[in-house]
């Protein structure tokens, strides 16, 4: 009688596991394509130095450029009451940063704030907005600062909201960076990461807005677009870059020559008020500080008039 092969069982299990991962990846890809069919581009697609960039705009007047945070997209800003107010006076231009919404994120580039600032510079010149007020929210604040440092002639005034400006110990960064790890990250974001992100989405959004409630208008931000594998990779990569980028920028804030407004929620659960916004204000003695009481990370949704006041202060000073 033939003896059973001791390797047969592990091989069979491995094959079944690989098949399950493959089927999951197909399902995740199909769901991502469906999300894109359900949520087509809301703005304009342009080619910028070989990279597809998506932006939306509203209103007329002086350009006011908006850069969203990690994991977000243009719908975040465009659905907020802030944009509706700002568009009465400004040409509001909201970009999908690389890897988010409908903007590409080629793997050949490490998309640091400086790299994104160069792409943004070319995009602004192409759409005839070579000098503008720049507002960056959260991770987008680092891109706004990088643009102001590299091309001050393009930035008439700078508004940073809920940004991470100084390096600190962040244990959550390691966990959030996993989908950006080569090979392993590719497996994760096509298998377990999307359903996990879908499960955690309501809790994460509540934390972003806490202590304020999540406004009904935020329903315009489609979660299925945010948890596509491509966008999960962009978000994970930016989590990994967050601390090194703060180290690279924090010694240069004194070089900012244009008017600067700093907006922060007093109860932000994502970034510490004292160690971030207040410290930046001390480093920039002439800056305008807007601390919004009872507000969390998403000030442009919860207190749009406060963000508008910061924009107006900078515009007047400029």
Write the topology of this structure.
Elements: H1 8-38, E1 44-48, E2 51-58, E3 62-67, H2 74-78, H3 81-86, E4 90-95, H4 113-126, E5 132-137, H5 139-150, E6 155-161, H6 172-177, H7 184-189, H8 193-209, H9 223-226, H10 229-249, E7 260-265, H11 274-283, E8 288-292, H12 299-302, H13 304-317
Helix pairs in contact: 4-5, 5-10
Summary?
The protein is built from 13 helices and 8 strands. By secondary structure, it is of the alpha/beta class. The protein has a single domain, classed as Rossmann fold (3-Layer(aba) Sandwich).
List descriptors.
Rossmann fold, 15% strand, alpha/beta, 318 residues
Question: Span from first to last CA?
Answer: 90 Å
Helix content: 40-55%
* Number of helices, counting only DSSP H or I runs of 4 residues or more: 13
Q: Could you say which overall geometry the principal axes of the C-alpha atoms support?
A: globular
Provide the residue-averaged pLDDT. 93
CATH first level: which class? Alpha Beta
Rg over CA atoms: 21 Å
Written overview of the protein:
It is a single chain. It is built from 13 helices and eight strands. The chain has 318 residues and is of the alpha/beta class. An eight-stranded mixed β-sheet has the order 1-2-4-3-5-6-7-8, sandwiched between helices. Strand 7 (260-265), helix 11 and strand 8 (288-292) form a beta-alpha-beta unit. Helix 4 (113-126) crosses helix 5 (139-150) and helix 5 (139-150) packs across helix 10. It is globular, with a radius of gyration of 21 Å.
């Amino acid at each position: 009688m033939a003896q059973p092969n001791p390797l047969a069982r592990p091989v069979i299990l491995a094959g079944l596991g690989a098949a399950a991962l493959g089927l999951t990846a197909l399902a995740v890809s199909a769901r991502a394509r469906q999300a894109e069919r359900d949520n087509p581009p809301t703005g304009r697609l342009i080619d910028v130095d070989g990279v597809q960039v998506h932006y939306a705009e509203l209103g007329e007047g002086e350009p006011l450029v908006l850069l969203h945070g990690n994991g977000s997209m243009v719908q975040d800003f465009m659905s907020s009451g802030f944009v509706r107010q700002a568009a009465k006076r400004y040409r509001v231009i909201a970009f999908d940063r690389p890897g988010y919404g409908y903007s590409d994120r080629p793997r050949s580039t490490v998309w640091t704030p400086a790299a994104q600032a160069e792409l943004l510079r070319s995009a602004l010149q192409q759409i005839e907005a070579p000098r503008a007020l720049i507002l960056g929210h959260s991770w987008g604040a680092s891109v706004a600062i990088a643009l102001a440092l590299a091309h001050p002639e393009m930035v008439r005034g700078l508004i940073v909201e809920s940004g991470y400006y100084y390096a600190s110990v962040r244990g959550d960064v390691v966990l959030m960076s996993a989908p950006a790890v080569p090979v392993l990250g590719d497996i994760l974001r096509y298998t377990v990461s999307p359903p996990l992100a879908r499960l955690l989405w309501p809790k994460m959004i509540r934390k972003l807005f806490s202590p304020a409630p999540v406004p009904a208008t935020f329903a315009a931000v489609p979660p299925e677009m945010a948890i596509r594998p491509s966008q999960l990779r962009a978000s994970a990569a930016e989590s990994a870059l967050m601390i090194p980028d703060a180290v690279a920028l924090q010694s240069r804030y004194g070089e900012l020559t244009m008017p600067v407004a700093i907006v922060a929620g007093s109860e932000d659960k994502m970034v510490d008020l004292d160690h971030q916004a207040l410290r930046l204000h001390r480093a920039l003695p002439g800056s305008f500080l807007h601390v919004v009481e009872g507000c969390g990370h998403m000030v442009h949704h919860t207190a749009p008039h406060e963000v508008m006041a910061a924009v107006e202060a900078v515009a007047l000073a400029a």
